[in-house]
């Protein structure tokens, strides 16, 4: 029920490795924060937006397709408030930095919720044989963008089930732009690849990026930039034969971060702590030196930092000097301000990596003082907060 509240729950504890104090925010049901390319934190208020199945009729494990709705948590009081009451489970969610507008997929529709007025509007309904990717809101708040891929009826199972098959089977991928007022939509770009990770620039309402999705070692050019006004598309960080690139996201100052792990790395981790596709190559067992980089929207390489530490996802501090990463069994801080990256253990995370929802996906708050992450230690996905 919209407006229903839950009192504070969770606990605080000290991490045994680092000694840092960790605050567990949730204990009821499964609770998932926004994807690492987004930001669950509110830039103006001490709140986060997340999805949860706490109001669902059935109690399900993370891999049993829980029925999610959208919630807001006040980080001061710990109280959570339900914002949607959808008959189908809410999928991917994004929002404006101030959390006024929340966009989300549900079933074959994408909706916009105005949290100030309570208005909830359908801005896109899928009528063809396509699946909907995660939405992104333009900086000028006029457009909503997302990827659509032909439905090849391959399930997104645990441990990256179907990851390789979708890469080969999908031959019709599109970037679609819908107007936030619900007045219409258009395909800004069509391709013969599976498309994903569509993200509008944080400072330009007409510039976006997206990726050719699939195992990193099989994708020959991962990152692309798109001008939605001119429909012009160009590659970002043109790849060489040994590159395996992924996990791209916009930084706060409008640069694009990417991770290059080298040949034989598919960008995945399973609950067996192996890769899902490129199983013959262990971490860093080749002559390629992994690195992370920052590129601008016009394909100019701004910086390149050798990365002797292997993480599954990174997220950049607002000033781009420190990364938070989720290693196999712990979260780490990586200082990239100097010529050599240095690592500090932040905490253990103890997640299983079994489902996408249980991936830690650590993200910084807008002021760089907090880190939010997820873990399914104990069986359900819960949210954790570290204050730095």
Descriptive overview:
The protein is an all-beta fold. The chain has a domain at 100-307: YVTN repeat-like/Quinoprotein amine dehydrogenase (Methylamine Dehydrogenase, Chain H, 7 Propeller), CATH 2.130.10.10. Helix content is 2%, strand content 41%. It has one helix and 31 strands. A hairpin with a 5-residue loop joins strand 29 and strand 30. The longest helix has 7 residues, at 163-169. The chain is globular.
Q: Just name the CATH architecture of the domain at 100-307.
A: 7 Propeller
Number of strands: 31
User: Which regions contain 5 or more consecutive residues with pLDDT less than 50?
Assistant: none
Kindly estimate the percentage of residues that lie in beta strands according to DSSP: 35-45%
CATH uppermost class of the domain at 100-307: Mainly Beta
What Rg is obtained from the alpha carbons, in whole angstroms?
20 Å
Overall pLDDT level: 95
What is the fourth-level CATH superfamily of the domain at 100-307?
YVTN repeat-like/Quinoprotein amine dehydrogenase
Largest sheet: 5 strands, antiparallel
The span between the termini is 35 Å
* Count, helices: 1
**Class inferred from helices and paired strands:** mainly beta
Helicity range? under 10%
Describe the structure concisely for a colleague.
The protein has 388 residues and is mainly beta. It has a domain of 208 residues: 7 Propeller (Methylamine Dehydrogenase, Chain H), CATH 2.130.10. Helix content is 2%, strand content 41%.
């Amino acid at each position: 029920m919209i407006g229903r509240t839950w009192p504070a729950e969770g606990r605080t504890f000290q991490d045994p490795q680092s000694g840092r104090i960790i605050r567990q925010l949730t204990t009821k049901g499964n609770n998932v924060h926004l994807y690492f390319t987004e930001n669950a934190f509110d830039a103006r208020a001490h709140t986060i937006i997340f999805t949860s199945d706490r109001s669902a009729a059935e109690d399900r494990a993370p891999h049993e397709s829980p029925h999610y709705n959208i919630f807001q948590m006040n980080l001061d009081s710990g109280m959570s408030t339900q914002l949607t009451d959808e008959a189908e489970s809410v999928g991917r969610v994004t929002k404006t930095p101030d959390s006024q507008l929340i966009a989300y997929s549900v079933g074959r529709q994408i909706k916009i919720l105005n949290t100030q007025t309570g208005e909830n509007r359908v801005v896109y309904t899928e009528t063809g044989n396509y699946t909907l990717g995660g939405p992104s809101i333009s900086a000028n708040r006029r457009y909503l963008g997302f990827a659509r891929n032909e439905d090849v009826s391959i399930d997104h199972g645990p441990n990256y089930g179907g990851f390789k098959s979708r890469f080969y089977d999908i031959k019709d991928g599109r970037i679609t732009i819908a107007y936030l007022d619900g007045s219409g939509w258009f395909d800004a770009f069509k391709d013969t690849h599976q498309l994903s990770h569509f993200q509008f620039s944080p400072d330009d309402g007409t510039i976006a990026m997206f990726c050719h999705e699939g195992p990193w070692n099989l994708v020959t050019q991962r990152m692309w930039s798109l001008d939605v006004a001119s429909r012009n598309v160009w590659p970002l960080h043109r790849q060489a034969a040994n590159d395996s690139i992924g996990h791209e996201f916009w930084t706060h100052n409008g640069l694009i971060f990417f991770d290059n792990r080298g040949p034989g790395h598919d960008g995945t981790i399973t609950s067996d702590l192996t890769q899902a596709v490129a199983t013959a190559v262990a971490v860093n067992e080749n002559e390629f030196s992994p690195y992370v980089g920052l590129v601008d929207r016009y394909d100019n390489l701004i910086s390149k930092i050798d990365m002797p530490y292997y993480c599954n996802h990174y997220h950049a501090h607002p000033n781009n000097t420190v990364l938070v990463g989720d290693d196999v069994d712990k979260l780490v801080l990586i200082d990239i301000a100097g010529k050599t990256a240095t690592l500090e253990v932040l905490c253990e995370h103890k997640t299983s990596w079994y489902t996408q929802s249980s991936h830690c996906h650590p993200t910084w708050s807008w002021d760089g003082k907090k880190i939010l992450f997820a873990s399914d230690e104990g069986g359900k996905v819960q949210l954790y907060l570290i204050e730095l």
